[in-house]
Amino acid sequence: MKIKAQFGMVMNLDKCIGCHTCSVTCSNTWTNRPGTEYMYWNNVETKPGVGYPREWENNDERKGGWHVKDGKLQLRAGGRVSKLLNIFYNQNLVQIDEYYEPWTYDYENLINSPEKDHQPVARPISQLTGEYMDITWGPNWEDDLAGVHETGKRDPNMRNLDEQIKFEFEETFMMYLPRICEHCQNPSCVSSCPSGAMYKREEDGIVLVDQDTCRSWRFCMTGCPYKKVYFNWKTHKAEKCTFCFPRIENGQPTICSETCVGRIRYIGIVLYDADKVLEAASVEDEKDLYEAQLETFLDPFDPEIQKEARKQGIPDDWIEAAQHSPVYKLAVEQKIALPLHPEYRTMPMVWYIPPLSPFMNALGGQVDSLSPDVIFPTINQFRIPIDYLANMFAAGDSDVIRNVLEKLVAMRSYMRSVQLDKPFDKSILERAGMTEEIAEEMYKLSAIAKYDDRYVIPKSHREDAGDMYAQQGSGGFDFMEACRSCMGGNQGDADPMEFYESGFWRELDEDSSKSV
Amino acid sequence: MSNLDIFFWLVFPYISLTIFVLGHIYRYNTDQFGWTAKSSQFLEQKRLRIGSTLFHYGIIFVFFGHVAGILVPKALFDFFGITDDMYHFGAIWFGGAAGVAVVVGGFLLFLRRVSIKRIAKNSSVSDYVALVTLGVVVLIGFTNTVGYTATGGEFDYRVVIGPWMRGILTFQPAPELMANAPIGFQLHVFTAFVLFAIWPFTRLVHVFSLPLKYLNRRYVVYRNQHTHDLSKLKKRKEFH
Ligand code: SF4
Ligand code: SF4
C-alpha cells in the first residue's frame, strides 16, 4: 500500500448561480498576461451546450484521456512511439478558435473621433493580429442557453436522449457547470508530456507544469480529456490551473472557492492508495469506474491506515484534516458527490453534487404531505433529465444519479418536517439509504455551509522542504516581469494579502444566526 | 592558399563551432524558459500540417545523410563492400527525395509564416533569421546535389569535404582541401557554419530536446519537494 494525500474539490451544483465570479477572480489572479487572454482556468458552462473549448466532451474526436485496449490502459491519442512520430504535427490539437480568438476594443476611437453624423463606436480588435475582426464566437457564447437550439445538438451528453423534445422551449432545461482542472489521480496530461515537464506533486496531488522544462510539444492539451491544459501562444508553453497552490500551502482555499458567491465549493484532502489507481482506472466496464475510484480512497478513521500513513511520512495534522475533509464526507460517507465523466479514466478529483431541478415545481402543491410513493417517482420527471446527468457524472448509469437525487430529496423533506414541526414518514430516509444523523450532517454541510466546514486545508510542511529558493519558477510564473507591474506595481506598497487576512469574508460565518 | 582561405576554412569554422558549443551551454543554463520548439500549431494548423511534416522528416533524413557522407570515411564504405555506384544511387535517390521534402516543406513553412497574419505578427526576428539562413543553406546544398547528379558526379565530396570536416573535428585542420572545392560546395559549407553560429540563439535549440527519454519513462511523473532534483535547479539559479 502506497498512501498518498490528495486535494480534492466538490461543487454543489444546486447552488451555482452562474455568476462567473470564480472565472473572473481566477483570471485576475492567474491569467492576466499576454498570451493568456483566452484562458479560463476556471470557466462556467451552461449545460446543455458544447462548452469551452467547443465540444471538449467529444473525446471520440478530441482523443483525450485513457481507454482500455487489448486489456490495457492506454492513452487515447496514442502511446509513446506514436507521440514521438507525430511530434511535428499533433493530429488532435484543438485550435485557439475552438476556445475563441481573443479581442479587445478600439477604445481610442471613442475619445478621438472627429465630429460625425453617428456616434463613434469601439470596434473589436483581434489580439492575435491587431486587426479589426468580426466576433463570431466568444467565452460563454452559450450563456443561459443562448443559441442552444443550434449548439446543444452537438452536446455529447445528449446521446440517448430525445433531443427534439428537449430543445423545445417549453421542455428545455439548464444547469451550470463550473469547471477547473480536475487534478486527476491518473492524469493523462502528465502521461502525455514527452518532456516530463508536467508532474503531480507527491505531497498533495496538485498537477503542475514546470515552465522551465516545457518544450512546446503540446501533447498535454490533447491528452487532457477536460481540455484544461492551455497553450500560451506568446511564451509557447503549456499553462494550467495550479489549484492556487501558494494559497493552499498556507491553508487558504483557492481563489475561485474563496470568492464563490453561491458558496458551492468544498476543499479537503483524501488519503488514497496509489498502488490501486492503475487497476481502478482499468476496470472493463465504464460504469464500474465510479465505484472503483471510491475504492482507492482510504478510511482516515481506521487506526491501521493511520499507522501506515504515519509510517509513510504523512503528518498527523494531515491525517486529521483527512478526517474532517468535506470531500471525504460528500464523496465517501454521504455519497452525494460524483466525479465528472469518470469514463475518461483519469480519476478526476473535482466532484459534483448533481442539481435537483426546481423541486417544488415538480411536486405540484403537495410538498407537505409527502409520502415516498409520491416523491421518488417524481425524480424521474425532473426537468433536468436523469439520463443527461448520468451521461455527465456516471458514465451513463442513471441508477447512480437516481440514488443521489433521492438522498437530496429525502434530506430536504426531512429538514422541512423538522423545521415546521410536521410529522415525517421515516421510510423516506430509509429508502434513500440514510439515517437522521446523515440527513442532519448533509444539511449542515450543504445548506449552512460554514466556511470552516467547507474548507479543511492542512498547511504544507514547508519547513521540511528543500531549498525553496532553488525551486523558484519550477511551478509558478515568477518569470513574468511584465506581470509584476500590471498587478498594481504603481500603487505603492499595498499588501495584496491584506484583504484575505482580515477575514473579511469569514465574518459572515462567525455567527451562525447570520448564516443561511 | 590565401589568407582568405585560411579564414574561411580554418578560423571561421572554429569560431562558429565555439559559439555553437558555448552558446548552447550558456543558453541552456540561463534560459530554460525560452528553450522551446515555439510551436505555432495552436494558432494555425491547416497549412502547418504538410509543411512541418515534410520539412522535419526530410531534414532528419538529410542529417543522417550528411553523417554518412561526411563523417563516415569512404574507406569504411569500401570495407563493407559498398561501391561508389551503390553509394551514389542511395545518395541521389534517397538523398534527393529527402532534399525535395526539405525544400518543399521549408518553402511551405516560409509561405505560411509570411502570409498568415496570426503567424506573421507573432514571429520574432530570430524566427525569420533562423528560417532564412536555414533556407539558404538548404537551397545551396540542394542545388549542389542536383548539379552533382547532372554533371555525372565529377566532384566527390567524400574525398574532399569529408576529410576536411573530420580534420576540423579532430583538430587536425586541412583548410587546403576546402580551398580547392567548387564554389557551390564552398558556399554551402560557409553558410552552414553561419547557421551553426546563430543556432544557439534561435528556436533551433529544440533539436536537442527531442524527448527520447519518454520512450521508457513511466507515464505519471511525481515530484517531491524534498528530493526532486534540487542541485540542477540550484545551479541554474546561480548562473544568473
Ligand atoms: S483535468 Fe487536470 S490533471 Fe486531469 S488530465 Fe486534465 S489537466 Fe491533467
Ligand atoms: S462563483 Fe460560484 S456561484 Fe458563481 S458561477 Fe462560480 S461556482 Fe457558480
Automatic annotation (TrEMBL), chain A:
A GO-annotated cellular component: cell envelope
Principal place of residence: other
EC number: 1.7.99.4
Domain 4Fe-4S ferredoxin-type: 7-36, 172-203, 205-234
Cofactor(s) essential for the protein: [4Fe-4S] cluster; [3Fe-4S] cluster
Pfam family, one: Nitr_red_bet_C
InterPro entries found in the cross-reference section: 4Fe4S_Fe-S-bd (IPR017896), Nitr_red_bet_C (IPR029263), Nitr_red_bet_C_sf (IPR038262), NO3_Rdtase_bsu (IPR006547)
Keywords for the protein's UniProt record, in alphabetical order: 4Fe-4S, Electron transport, Iron, Iron-sulfur, Metal-binding, Oxidoreductase, Repeat, Transport
An individual GO BP term: nitrate metabolic process
Record localization: Cell envelope
GO molecular function annotation: 4 iron, 4 sulfur cluster binding; electron transfer activity; metal ion binding; nitrate reductase activity
Protein name: Nitrate reductase subunit beta
Native source species: Cerasibacillus terrae
Protein's gene: narH
From TrEMBL, chain B:
A Pfam family assignment: Nitrate_red_gam
One GO BP: anaerobic electron transport chain
Main subcellular localisation: membrane
Binding sites annotated in the UniProt record for heme b 1: 56, 188, 206
NarG-like domain location: 6-224
Assigned EC number: 1.7.99.4
GO molecular function terms noted in the UniProt entry: electron transfer activity; heme binding; metal ion binding; nitrate reductase activity
Transmembrane segments: 6-26, 54-72, 92-111, 123-142, 185-208
Oxidoreductase among keywords: yes
Entries under InterPro entries matching the protein: Heme-iron_electron_transfer, NarG-like_domain, NarG-like_sf, Nitrate_red_gam
UniProt membrane topology term: Multi-pass membrane protein
Residues binding heme b 2, per UniProt: 66
GO cellular component entries: nitrate reductase complex; plasma membrane
Keyword entries, A-Z: Cell membrane, Electron transport, Heme, Iron, Membrane, Metal-binding, Nitrate assimilation, Oxidoreductase, Transmembrane, Transmembrane helix, Transport
Intracellular or extracellular location(s): Cell membrane
PANTHER family: NITRATE REDUCTASE PRIVATE CHAPERONE, REDOX ENZYME MATURATION PROTEIN REMP FAMILY, RESPIRATORY NITRATE REDUCTASE 1 GAMMA CHAIN
Stored NCBIfam families: narI (TIGR00351)
Name of the protein in its database record: Respiratory nitrate reductase subunit gamma
Species name: Cerasibacillus terrae
Organism ancestry: Bacteria, Bacillati, Bacillota, Bacilli, Bacillales
